[in-house]
Amino acid sequence: MAELDSISDAAQEEAARPPKDAFGLALWLLNSLGTLMIAAMMVLIVSDVIGRSFFNAPLNGVAEISSMLIVVIVFLQLPAAIHWQRMTRADMFLNRLAARSPRAGQALEAVFAGIGVFVFLVIFRATLPQFTDAWEQNEFFGVQGVWTLPTWPIRLAILVGCAGAALASLVQVAMGLKRAFAGTPA
Amino acid sequence: MIEIEIGLALIAIMAGLVLAGVPIGIGLVFLSYIGIGLIRENWDLAGRLLALASYAAISDYLFATIPLFVLMGLLVSVSDVGKDTFEVAQHLLRRLRGGLGMATVLANAVFGAVTGISIASAAVFTKVAVPQMMRFGYTPRFAVGCVAGSSILGMLIPPSLLLIIYGVLAEVSIGRLFLAGIIPGLVMAAGFMLMIWLMATFRPDWVQPVSATVAPPPEETAGSLLMKSVPITTLIALVLGGLYSGYFTPTEAGAVGAFGALVIALLRRRLNLQKFWRILVETGFVSVGILFLLIAASMYSRMLTMAGIPASIADLIQALGLGVYGFLFVYILFVLLLGMIVDSSSILLIVTPIAAPIAMAFNLDLIHFGIITVIAVEVGLLTPPFGIGAFAVKATLNDRRIGLETIFAGCIPFIAVMLAVLALIVAVPGLTLMFN
Amino acid sequence: AQTQINITIAASHPTTIAWIWAMQQALMPAVNQALENTRFRIRWREAFGGTLYRFTETRNAVKDGITDVGFVGTLWEGSAMPLQNVTYFTPFATDNLRLQVDVMEKMTAEMPEMQKAWTDNNMVYLGTCGTETYDLWTTFPVRTVEDLRNRKISAPGVSATWLGGTGAVPVNGALTTYYTDIQTGVSEGTMSFPSGIFPVRVHEVAKYITKVNIGCMYVGGIGMNRQTFNRLDPVVQAAFRTGGKAYTAALTNRVLETSEANMREMVAKGAELSTLPAAERQRWVDGLPDIAGDWARTNEGRGQPAKKVLAAYMDGLRAGGATPGRAWTA
Ligand code: NA
Ligand code: NA
Fold first, then answer.
1. What ipTM was estimated for this complex?
2. A139 touches chain C (CB under 8 A)
């Protein structure tokens, strides 16, 4: 069944190309930054393995840095995942509803996206003081005297990710409502 | 006990929201916020807990390597290593009904010796096995069920994150637990293969309909078979050999495997910069899908803990005053129910400290009990509404035509086998204690 | 009439670990007992074993009120509570856990600098938690410091600095990965203490236990959310202070007893116990870089009175009769 490959191939190709609109481009750039970090993490871990196994020279802090990096990666890529509708869900009911009544389907989509706006604003608001604390008190992770890195970039990534995710959800609320009232299916 | 009522109500609402089609991660975060706010009557606190869990839940070296296992799977798939492997398997198993399904199970059993988490297996094999099985006429439902179902071998065959967590909580030797997992893992793999053969023989419509139009398999010679086997054999040798001779840890295996797959793809000239970028972007999308669910699941299980749900059910079990088999039955049922709503490590954190002392009082061997627990927990990976194994397949597959419900349906025969093996292991403790 | 008070008590680890065991078996009963003839009753809501938060969140969980009472591992809080980590930067100082617990408890009670870390993090300090002295678990016998050269030793975080000068290669990991890491050869041993290492059965794969006496360490303590504490009646507040004292006493006893029992069992199961000769230990100590000095200077640079804390700690140990392997100063 080659068509299975070709469909997701086309979708993958589209996602890999920078979009034309400014909002899409911004999300695409955040996503790309996260993508580069995944590659960097692979190089980092393999270097540690090689350095430790063959040169008695492990890289300090690879485990800690990776465990922080993964948070940054997730939040940088979250807005794009929402925008391009890659969040995991069960769509059986929605598909049936949309087949019967496209308007109702779109309205429900708008409600779900609204929940997204809400939760990401909640996390944004609660992360903001964490960011200012980390910034003002020079919070770090790692071991003093061995290596340390500041934690504020991680909090900042969460803030940016939540803001982007809330906006991406908001766009979907608007589109859902527009289609629900216009009656055009997705 | 108003908290319990809030908790139970939120479990029901969760099931409703998931069925209605809300993005599962977002739905869980939302319910966690509502639940904590209501239980503690403090909405600021609820927000702070969400913010805290947002990074703490996945800020772990183990989870950091999930994208790398995903990347490995995509690279194996794009460089046609997976396709070649399955062509070899198809040729070798062409006279066997359900042969490719069995090949997927076997591949998962081997890969299980490399990874400690089932999500990694699901992420690796979805892109590799599902398109190939469908190419040879398997139904989508069976193909995805096969990948999700056999991925559980990753946490039964050592190394295994779940066995490590259990070992620490129950204070038993992790090494002995690992040894104890081998036979049940092999029995489970054999059980899956037997089930596939039976279904392919007696219910071909479910597995590989005779009517399906199938592309004729390529002609194979000894030489072509060998050529097609070299890349995958090299990759397995690299990862398994490196792991068991002490060059890297199971956590690091993802990075080494991805790197090895990258080198193979480059050597086979299947990769240019553009294509590599495409794969990296896809890796990001798949990983976010899985990791955000882990964050949300962590918030949700914290909320249930605050509601006191696990503690009150445990009290209930203790109050029943059962015999040993009665206790095991109720215990397994409890784990299976929890498996429907929370993630696997949370279940272990919740049940082990309560259940291990009771099991000891019944003179059950804690190693035996651990394998029972882990198999029961793993069923939860495949059961709706919250089944992270099925979610991982869905996120990786990214095909709108194959819905989550199809994946859950495909898992049913595998769950049946797991329960049968579970019953066997309850009845025959020797299966887990052979090497001990 | 009776007044019932809801208190959530939680930890990132299960009650099988002594640090948490003492919360359930010493602190809670002591609080209950202290309130026996009063009109107050505590309705405890227990969340041990990491079901409410993970080990990286122990400070935030109490600070934010996710739990009312919690075990706070200051060893994971090098950034927010650096002064509490003085023991980790003064290795080979003492193997007398009772003395160390006394000194740290006194410093926390009497030095405003130490108290401030808890207050700034919105916590009231109730009880103290420390480990017995660190030793070596290896796959090879260790008779001299030279035996460690080029050996890979699981030593995550600050413990990597204790290997400075030995030529050993520190390998990352966690308590839960040591077994597999050593079994497969990723590392060839680790530094730990009996009551911590016994549950993960590392002696099965690294059977050479070498007593080095790297020193006892202050892990952290029991914190109570400040708002929760301030809302309580003085009678209940006093009960929690009593509970904290009971925690410290019961924990220290438990750690020392478990430690001995665990060591005996490891030897019974085939582990080979030996002691690093005093002269070799001194060579190890003398070869270490200026760990404490570097730590103090770094933290002074961040506006933390680390020099004063370091001096108070070392003086406290000496006043209690200890002879630190090295006179750490800044
Ligand atoms: Na495994
Ligand atoms: Na489930």
1. 0.90
2. yes
